Amino acid sequence: MASLVNADITEIRQASAGLSGAAVPSMAGGLLLVGLAAGIGYATGDQSRFWHAYLLGVMYITTLGVGGLFFVIAHHLTGGRWGTTVRRLAEITAGTLTTSAVLFLPILALNFSGSDVLYPWIDRPMVEADPILASKQYYLEPTWFAIRTVVYFVAWIGMARILLSASVKQDDREPMKQARWMQTISGPMMILLALTMNFAAFDWMMSLEPHWFSTMFGVYFFAGSFLSFLAMLILLANYLQSKGVLNQSITTEHFHDLAKLMFAFIFFWGYIAFSQYMLIWYAAIPEETLWYDVRQQGPWIAWGLLLVFGHLLVPFLGTMSRWVRRTKPLIGFWAAWMMVMHWVDLVYIIQPQVRGASALPVPWLEAIATVGMLGIFIGAWMRGAAGKWLLPVQDPRLPIALSYHNH
Amino acid sequence: MSKTHPSHDAPQGKRLGLLAQFAGPEELVAAAEKATDAGYQRVEAFSPFPVLGIDEALKNPRTILPYVVLMLGLSGMCIALLMQCYMNGMEFPGAPWGLSGYDFLISGKPSFSIPAFIPVTFEVIILLSAFGAFFGMILLNGLPKLSNPLFRSERFAAATDDGFFLFVEASDPKFAEAETEAFLSSLGGSGIEGIDEPVTGHAVPGFLYLVGAAVATLALLPPMYLWATSGTTSTVPRISFFKDMENQPKVKPQTTFALFKDGRGMRVAVPGTVARGGLKDDAKLYFGYEPEDGFVGGPRRIEAMLASYSVQPVADGPDADGADSATPPAADQPKEENWVTEFPVKVTKELMERGQQRFNIHCAVCHGLDGGGMGLVTKRALELEQGTWTQPTSVHAESVVEQPVGKLFNTISNGVRKMPGYKEHIAVEDRWAIVLYLRAIQRSQLATADDLPKDKLIELSNLN
């Protein structure tokens, strides 16, 4: 095991430049599906539901990107070693945030068009007449909302770009210097990321019910983001290895570590989700309980229980065993499971806020929109990866990472 | 071989195994691998730092510690849930030894409410899991152990510094002194030596165990004595740790006190004096009724006050009852017809607003914001089908509307039938403010078109 550093390299370590072209069908298919969802939404007159489904899709891929960004920054900040083998994959994932930003533009346009099908606070007379909303009217305001959204994306894309370009530069010159530079900037970046993620969660998803507030919501958003990113990374590594990519570098030990992190974050998500629920349930203040009240009607009760079991208890027990974590197909199964559950979680956050409609029975429109977004995301990922090394080949920590061993 | 401790002349104990030293970590791993491949099962490695791959090389079975932690964690969950169910949500009246439990109603949540139980459950799971990991590790490692036979080898001290050792136990089925020694040296081991069990004779003398047990038992006596005396009666003062906290030099309410002649702990006012704020000379204001004979303060009340001051406790016997019945009837119960009909305070808009606010705070829970009788408490009592609950009378009932303000004031102060009095909670002015507001909401239900100003009336009739 320890000799891998000197072993013959039989794996593929570099993405072909032709990947950009291969990304086109995926992107086009994705756009088509999103367009289809829009068509159905507008044709059936259910604009509110479509726009919520659209936001859901954008949030789904944005959380993957932000999760990747967090992984990279945390890796540099902690001086991580084992993560070096998968760092480039995370950097490329963070790079897809540019696409998320572009996909967010229609939502800003919707807000400026004065339509309140997505964010109820666009309706100014309603906001001014409501004493609670009136006190938030300067914050929940289309222009200021758009400015903030731009700030979040600029910050994220900027950080992702800076880290990726330093990392790519490292592949052919001054590896030590780049490593130090990335480590130096990771501290301030972490602070910036924490703040922007928190407020992005408040703005984009909490304000769907403008009366409601939960100071824990930002952490909830973060927990879901990082968890879904880890699941995606495990799946991605599994897939790449089946194509002969990085199947020497990413060893069972790395799968074991990713799985351990995923296991920890399954619980962290549950901890945060429950803390948010319990405080609100216990205090029973109408402004706070209203959010859960909607989610404890009709099919949403079952949906909530699905989260309790499917997002927390079952995968927690499922990924507890060391053997499962070290067996690629099994941990791949749980990773896929968590990606579905992350979607279920986002549906739970976003979809009950659809106005006019009674609780939706089968979320097919939401599924179409999200699958479409995922298609675009995969295309963006391929474009980002095209021509790059998929491993930070010159990173000073790579040898340690390759021979890394769990105890 | 068998070069054990050189200065050791005592008889040899049982052979425990063979110890061999290796040059470095790689050599140690390689040797361990070969030894276990050759079929040795009870091989142990010692090194100054954790060596990568040694666990695999030794082919040790994986530790059962994770299962210990899991089991303890699960027990923690069960213990915590059962404990809370019992402590929080169960009540067995009459159960012995104080085990009756108490069904707590907290924040209106159900007695068994899982969300409220989860934090404690979580903490107990963590606690027991941590105990399992910590103590399990110690026990599985055979600790605490005062000495290890290996320490008798002089070389072995290097295991904390730069020595890498392999120890093959004699209990290994494949162990054969000469062969094993040859095998170890073929692996590159140096300084191979036999390790023997310590010879008996150095054990702790048996009687010391007895002494220890006796001392430990005796040490239990003082706390047991304290515990026993704390709950029993005795003619001598009991021994206590915190004397000044258990017995404070103060008189508690409603207790006797030998220092005073009458034996009362609480003192009565000096005859002829009235406590500050206790005079209440304006009966209309304070009691809501017109004094019968114009004597401000109500003669019967003053009489009653003075009487209570002069009554001294009678030793005992039949006189005690006589003295009680001599006390005039409580002065707060005036005759029906004397109720005040005009407000004894200045009626202003501020007073009305104050009344609304106080009513909503003190009365609406039962009577409802509109006074109709459907407050939250009432609703909940009806929902729970509480047989003992009397629904509050509507303040719009004719019997209430007819009442003079003084009577309403009296109702608030002293309560009526099932409704408790609120004079201890609500200041006099506030009680009048509430009465004023009551009048307003009564009026609101009985208003006629004539009550509206002309222009409003026209405005309204134009509406539809």
Keywords:
heterodimer; A: 407 residues; mainly alpha; 16 helices; globular; B: 464 residues; Cytochrome Bc1 Complex, Chain D, domain 2; 3 domains; 4-stranded antiparallel beta sheet; 4 strands; elongated; disordered N terminus
Compact summary:
Chain A: The chain crosses the membrane at residues 21-42, 54-77, 89-110, 145-164, 185-205, 217-240, 261-280, 300-318, 330-350, 362-382. The complex is a heterodimer of chains A (407) and B (464). With 407 residues, chain A is mainly α.
Classification by helices and strands of chain B? mainly alpha
Helix content class of chain A: over 70%
State the helix count of chain A.
16
Total individual domains of chain A: 1
Largest sheet of chain B: 4 strands, antiparallel
Residues in helices of chain B, as a percent range: 40-55%
SSE arrangement of chain B, N to C? EHEHHHEHEHHHHHHHHHHHH
Measured by DSSP, the beta-strand proportion of chain A falls in under 5%
Mean pLDDT score of chain A, rounded? 91
Strand tally of chain B, please?
4
Q: Looking at the structure, what is the overall shape of chain B?
A: elongated
Which stretches of chain B are low in confidence, meaning pLDDT under 50 for 5 or more residues running?
Answer: 1-8, 313-331
User: Hey, which two chains have the biggest interface?
Assistant: A-B, 12 and 13 residues
| Low-pLDDT residue intervals, each spanning 5 or more residues of chain A | none
Series of secondary-structure elements of chain A, N-terminal to C-terminal: HHHHHHHHHHHHHHHH
* Overall geometry of chain A: globular
